[in-house]
Amino acid sequence: QVRLVESGGGLVQAGGSLRLSCAASGGSFRTSAMGWFRQTPGKEREFVAAIGFDDSTTRYADSVKGRFTISRDDTRNTLYLRMTNLKPDDTALYYCAAAGRLGTGPLTRAFDYYLWGQGTQVTVSS
């Protein structure tokens, strides 16, 4: 069974850092673009960051640009999101996702992704 499992969330003070991981199992995602999204109660799932299948291109939401870094290690089948200078507005449930179309650059729309993890909670206190 193909699945994605996020980890690394937690409670951190404003200005702090966290690194989220997304481990893929049951299949290889070397040819899939991957992404991170986040969601808070009552709001739509929001794009955070995405990386193309060949690791050469990335895209970020304006709200996290310069603070978050997405990367992937295909030898470990793992996606990462390094988050620095965290703000209370970053508080959310963070999801990783794998895109359905193969061999693409970074994708920013949730409907481009077919496989989602269960999410990891990030809480930033002021």
Structure write-up:
This protein has 126 residues and is mainly beta. The chain is built from no helices and 11 strands. The protein has strands at 3-7, 10-13, 18-25, 32-39, 46-51, 58-60, 68-73, 78-83, 92-102, 113-116, 120-125. Strands 2, 4, 5, 6, 9, 10 and 11 form a 7-stranded mixed sheet that branches. It has a 4-stranded antiparallel sheet with strand order 1-3-8-7, with no helix packed on it. β7 (68-73) and β8 form a beta hairpin. The model has no long low-confidence stretch (mean pLDDT 95).
- What is the 3D shape? globular
Poorly predicted spans: none
State the total count of DSSP E strands. Answer: 11
Main beta sheet: strand number and arrangement?
Answer: 7 strands, mixed
What's the tally of helices? Answer: 0
| Backbone structural class | mainly beta
Mean pLDDT score = 95
In short:
With 126 residues, the chain is mainly β. The protein has no helices and eleven strands.
Topology of helices and strands:
Blueprint lengths: L2 E5 L2 E4 L4 E8 L6 E8 L6 E6 L6 E3 L7 E6 L4 E6 L8 E11 L10 E4 L3 E6 L1
Parallel strand pairs: 2-11
Antiparallel strand pairs: 1-3, 3-8, 4-5, 4-9, 5-6, 7-8, 9-10, 9-11
Notable characteristics:
126 residues, four-stranded antiparallel beta sheet, mainly beta
